[in-house]
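Section: Multi-chain targets

For targets with more than one molecule, the full set of components is provided together so that the structure can be written out for the assembly as a whole rather than chain by chain. Components appear in the order listed by the source. The example entry contains two components.
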Amino acid sequence: MSKKVRTAVTPTREENFPEWYQQVIKAADMAENSPVRGCMTIKPYGFALWENMQRIFDGWLKDYGVQNTSFPLLIPLEYISREADHVEGFATECAVVTHHRLEKNEDGSALVPAGKLEEPYVIRPTSETIIGEAMSRWIRSYRDLPMKLNQWGNVMRWEMRTRMFLRTSEFFWHEGHNAFANEEEAVADTTHILNLYDKFFKEYLAFPGIKGVKTPDERFPGADETYCIEAMMQDGKALQAATSHYLGQNFSKTFNIKYQNKESGEDFVHTTSWAFSSRMVGGLIMMHADDDGMMMPPRIAPTQVMILPILRDDADTDKIMAHAEATAQILREKGLRVQIDSRDMRTPDKMWDAVKKGIPLRVEIGAREADEGTLTHVRRDLGRDSKTTESLSDFGAHVQGILDAIHDDMYQRAKDFMDARIVDIDDAKALDKLFKKKHDGFARMDVAQLEEIGVQKAMEAHKLTSRCLPLADEGKKVLIGKAY
Amino acid sequence: MSKKVRTAVTPTREENFPEWYQQVIKAADMAENSPVRGCMTIKPYGFALWENMQRIFDGWLKDYGVQNTSFPLLIPLEYISREADHVEGFATECAVVTHHRLEKNEDGSALVPAGKLEEPYVIRPTSETIIGEAMSRWIRSYRDLPMKLNQWGNVMRWEMRTRMFLRTSEFFWHEGHNAFANEEEAVADTTHILNLYDKFFKEYLAFPGIKGVKTPDERFPGADETYCIEAMMQDGKALQAATSHYLGQNFSKTFNIKYQNKESGEDFVHTTSWAFSSRMVGGLIMMHADDDGMMMPPRIAPTQVMILPILRDDADTDKIMAHAEATAQILREKGLRVQIDSRDMRTPDKMWDAVKKGIPLRVEIGAREADEGTLTHVRRDLGRDSKTTESLSDFGAHVQGILDAIHDDMYQRAKDFMDARIVDIDDAKALDKLFKKKHDGFARMDVAQLEEIGVQKAMEAHKLTSRCLPLADEGKKVLIGKAY
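Its structure, encoded as tokens over all components, is:
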């Protein structure tokens, strides 16, 4: 590709990756920091992406027999206290509701909290405890199992250092909570969900990841085993993209979730929980965007095709707009999400807007195209080099193929990037040497090495964590890297 | 209809309406009170209803050009303080977040709030203020108008006396917030949205309502005009089903939402806000359910057709299940939501379960039906009297017509009920007399009568409020009644 003399986003990834990330979000108009400490406002274009992700994956969960529910936003303090590991994991970062009223202060100049609650509540950081309490009442016999529940919603973990989508105090996710009669079914559920995530990320987000299990110190508080998908961002850091936890009988014993088995004895159920969050939007940006802005994976893009009418002479406006409408109509009939940018703006500004928003395919229609029944299209991922002029009917016949090719290429680029940056090493010395040379990627080594003091020291020195034991390596290897 | 000797729900509507309401929710397994004071847990069957309502109406909003967003759950105290009327309306009932951490107490026996916030936040009771603040930055010129934003989410108003769906501390809704260049467009938007609600309620929920405007004392805090839809429940009380507010320039002046107009001067925008909430689920119950449980309007029902295989003899099981599956397949191809109840339960229990859940159409398939290629169906609203046996192919050909007839009949019954209970009266004396006789409905009188001391006294004595000035009466009449 040709050298860029000027990029739509400043700074570039190479100049300052964290700041580039913020500027991509701004350039694509996806979100902004809100006046509420640590919380973001998701703007229409960013929210449309999240809605598309929700819609697709929600359908998959329903096909798997999961039912949506809604549990309260607030959780009694006492619930959090019950599960010891859970306390350690969450107690330090919760929003606490202590009052239920506001009153004017003495001089009437401001509102102050009043109506102190006898028992404070926390805004849910996650819902295992309150769902566990409900399951203890809802599950009576083996006939009630499996019970598969999910909710889409907001949760809150008070964060000191925040970054939009990646780490915010309030964030959005789905959280699934399933209960089973035995360990075998529960573990199978945990890995089934992990595979659903992997498939969804691959097929809709063009997002390659590595399936693995977490080491004990990186597990979810209260889990027996945490499965995860780890992905590599363009700065070589890891993003934990989704997790699926096998909780064993930890929560069922704490919350007394028992069932009458077929032999008329009583057993505790085995539970799982699993989630991905709006953090994935951040992951998509850091995996796919470039120095010109966002790059939306076509199958999830809010707008898949943007049509730009190139209006130079008023006399041509009608025929150009008519041809643009006809093009949009044909694409809509194919089920594509299409827009015509008819805003009162200069054409180059519209073009750059589509680039910065990462719209997968841009179609340009000027007077000549209108006359000839053709159009010119440009792939966002390949840029001007992919510029092609063809007839509307030819384009209509293979537009889906172009979008699929963009998807495949985005996936392959990201996968090649990741694969090239996973370096096999043997020992502490090699680990230290690798990251001293500012390795932008992961190291892979025998899992037994994690016990070595030298390895632990090198990890601490370079701020590395064990990301996962890849399933592909059957638990013999560990991936080590920096992480978001 | 035949006299009922036994009802599936106890007590009946006549015996104890409020308790009947709670028992219908329990019998249909839609929701339950949660361990969190004033908050409910929405169970899968109740949530599926709410999801269907969301999905349909969200599509309509998108067609109208509304874009979904997500604003923070928490609102700075200072924002609430800015708009004086808004303070009066909301300050007394907010959940207040004052701490951001939990710590173990001195003896380590419990968790206590720690990390006191310098500035407390409230959990949003509604989002006019924080959206107003954002609009003041997002709107620059007339080119940015109209701006139409919506969000689906949870809000919280601390309630002392709660009732599931109708009045809970946390509830679910959509809240729309639009901004326009002038009053004319903003008022047109307010009524357009009101008409969308009315159409949605009528066409999907079989839910008749009266469109009107609120008297000043019943207006939304901060609104210039509140439009509403008032509906009548089966106890004759009113339910405010939806509201659409014209906010004038109240919020734009408070939050400094200005735009550059075409003449290059600056103007404040005119805003609107509008909502319906999960309260509508309560409204559906109180309008349509009967002494045997819930009655779901067919177009929004989570399950539209429930197929009951009547299994008496093991030898017949295969052919009955095969016929049930074939029936389900034909209905699914028509886009209907169908289930086969193959649970390990007695047939009468399954039958009553379908009745209590209010599934619009029940199909029974036994050995004879399987042999003959027929089925027997029963309408939930008409009961056994509507029992019909016919061939699967005949049924397939007109099942949509049956569901439409159920919808139309449910709407008409509710409308007839309401129309028969709106009594025209002239003065205070007549008002007092009407409600002394325990009138279960509304009174309609000249709006000027509201000024009369006698009318005010009668309203206070009978706990009546002005519900609305119906649009149909061009502001000359007022409806008075008890309300939820």
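Chain A has a mean pLDDT of 95.
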